[in-house]
Description:
five-stranded mixed beta sheet, 15 strands
Amino acid sequence: MPRYSRILGTGSYLPPKRLSNAELAAQLAKDGVETSDEWIVERTGIRARHFAEEGVTSSDLALPAAQSALAAAGVTAEQIDLIIVATSTPDVVFPSTACLLQQKLGAFGGAAFDVQAVCSGFVYALTVADAMIRTGAASKALVVGAEVFSRILDFKDRTTCVLFGDGAGAVVLGASDTPGILATELHADGRHSGILCVPGTVSGGKVLGDPLLKMDGQAVFKMAVSVLEKVARSVLEKAGRQESDVDWLIPHQANIRIMHSTAKKMKLPMDRLIVTVDEHGNTSAASIPLALDTAVRAGKVKPGDTVMLEGVGGGFTWGAVLLDF
């Protein structure tokens, strides 16, 4: 009998500090950086974001998101035999954020590791977990996207610092006799690594290069719009489904214009597009699971719905997952 994986529960967490565009603009103005709510909303659709307090790490954000997903799934931490954390802002160089989360959860013994694909990270992690469950390498997986992007932002660059936020989202994935995750596809093209990157590292106790985020916004926009449509159509074809079968499109929450463009190209009405970028900003690997959990708890995404998850990120990476919820 074929073995599949299904999402059993979702969870998310946002740090309490919410920063509106106006509040952020006022802070930036102190350093001579000019922006406004109107400027940010017009270009991105973002109205607010959440920032973690000093000392709060990705694993700290991941913990309540994971606990919420476990509760929703009716699964205990001890039953989890695989933890994958997608993050570009790990707590430390090593051990992995997944191992630190495992310690905090008390879910010892199973495999635990991080996946680094930036904003595509959750799609990558979910694909890996699905493959491990299908092959019998795991039975119940906790897949988390968690980020503290506020730590790597250049607050003198208004084109990037207004875009990002902190947060975490999680799902519990379990083995099933009936298909849940229907098709997945991952891609990367390292030739475009320079259009979105943090070109710094640690060596000999010193930072080499620049440890703050750099982005060529126009190049990222063009690349994202192109690849998202292609990968979405590809996973539909793999699953033997049509565009009209998609009940909900949950893309990486980076920019409302990219999201609207993708939905239009897939001929999906805008009321099937899940949007949280207005309140969360771009939370990188956390954005898709955050949006999924928000939609589930709002009563939008229901059991039996067909959902398309897709993301693009630095690397340049991209991918999609089609699933029956």
